[in-house]
Write the structure tokens for this entry.
Amino acid sequence: MQDHGNKMKKIIIYVSVITLIMLLAGCGRKAEERGVGNDMGNDGDIRIKDVTIQTSVRKTGQYPESICAVYSGSLDGISVGAADFKMTGKASIWGSNDKRPFEAGFSSVEVKGDTITLYPADYPEKFFYADEYKIACGKDERLNFTDKDVSKIVTPVADDFEYIEGQGGSPLNYHIFRPADEENKPLVIVFHGYGDTKNLLTYRTAVDWAEPENQKKRPCYVIAPTIDDMIYYRADKRDEIFEDLKKLIDTMVAEGKVNSSKIYVMGNSFGGMSTIEFSEKFPDTVAAALALCPAVNYSDTAVKNLEKMKDVPIWLAHAEHDNTIPSDESVKIKDALKAAGAGEVKLTIYSDEEMNASGADSDPDSTYSYHHVELAVMEDEAYKDWLFEH
């Protein structure tokens, strides 16, 4: 019996030792899975806490300049480079409900404390087109995050505009930028193109005027109406917006904020058409107009009423091979104004080579097709100088 008892004790001790070894091995595996003790850091609880994206409005639209990801736990000991990260996602397509896949890499990465800052390289989209995306680290998946982790997007200059919704049923919604000195300043009104309701982020036609460099040289107010597609498409609704915009201008003039002799209007595509229609409706208000690839073929009355704005100086700009609005439309406007006795009409037609040099391409479905003559115009100070000379 004693021998049997001794054997049982040995078996129990043996099983206990084996169990302990297995438990220790299991803990080791779990520790390795969490990252504890591996060469990628000593904090097993590393996970994404928050993401802030810094963007700018380049001439090709909103661009992510840096992506700042904050994690729980220290990143000490983690060694990663730009090549270890990749961004993949799906982006909207202008004028379509479809999505297209995209991917982007990074030019550099900084790791400091609990933060990783990534700097995108050759990002292929307007940033606000990116509806869903993931940034993955091939070296350590704990560093992965998605668009759902982003809490803040910062866009200098564009963020300085205030958004005002139409009051009392007015269809006029707009962004407004106010200069540092708000007394008796010029006003630049910028109409956007059809479908471009992200009018501060789509291109630089509005934000350019609010840039510190421009404000130093040409301090001014900037009003950029935001017009929904189906409202924009209707001439009667556009007319309502023009009426309410005129009331807003009159109020700002009466308050001593806007110089009544320095009110300028500009826009591209549908915005170019609206520039002409507004100038026809209120020729005594507009000091000068800048119409970029104006879509007057979508307005039955725009060309017919050109005589009403014959005393408004205007500069038209168009790409020679614009696939959306033929450049002939701008030629027709120039000829009709000249025939009506207009005193100052300028027209610039850009060649394919000039459009290519500005960043456009010949594909009509491209984000930056030849229809985007603003790519060339907003790079040229001559247009701004011309407006403010009037």
